[in-house]
Amino acid sequence: MAGLGKIGIVVAATLAVFALGATTFVGSGVYDIGADDHHTKLTLSLIESLRDRSIDVRSRAIELRYVDAPDRIRAGARRYASLCAGCHLAPGEAKSLVRVGLYPHPPNLAQEELSDGRRAFWIVKHGIKMSAMPAWGKTLDDAAIWDIVSFIRKMPDMSADAYRQLADPLDAIAKQ
Ligand code: HEC
Questions:
Q1: Beta partners for 90?
Q2: Tens of pLDDT along 66-76?
Q3: What is the three-class DSSP state of 143?
Q4: Closest ligand 1 atom to Cα of 86
Q5: Considering the entire predicted model, what is its pTM?
Q6: How many Å lie between the centroid of ligand 1 and the Cα of residue 26?
Q7: Which fold has domain 65-168?
């Protein structure tokens, strides 16, 4: 440790103690990773800060590409109904069996105002690690994801009937 000096040695020793503590904690298996048990406050606030900062940095430069054409909103609604509503609910759908056991709990997108379209697009495309939110960019192209995000924006003002008409393929055929 030549050249480190006293302070350097204290810092290195402190880091070694922390590393040992962290390894012992992880190795002991004492932390409950089960989704039916909540994180401690400290773990939760660390994970939430990590998630929010990571998404902020990555979504900042995305160009907003909301769509308004009825056929695009309809396409977004159909995909939402089959891929997302089971976790995020929809107008007139207040319950789902999958949702009950999910932790972190998926937000109810039928009621939540969409405040940041860039953030929503990034999350839908890339998903969120260690949560049930899938990376839809593996199966949908950007245009399809903007259709869904544009539909989500309209959901809080939508009645259950309007949603069903929009999302139900049989309803669309009946109108042709
Ligand atoms: C299997 C369950 C599941 C499915 C299916 C799912 N999500 Fe999620 N989603 C989640 C969870 C859980 C979170 C919260 C993650 C977190 O907070 O770390 C989330 C978060 C989000 C968010 C961020 C909301 C916010 O306010 O922070 C958006 C937007 C979103 N999902 C959209 C979608 C869309 C669109 C689809 C369908 C294409 C979808 N999700 C499918 C579980 C799911």
A1: 93
A2: 999 999 999 99
A3: helix
A4: 5
A5: 0.90
A6: 28
A7: Cytochrome Bc1 Complex; Chain D, domain 2 (1.10.760)
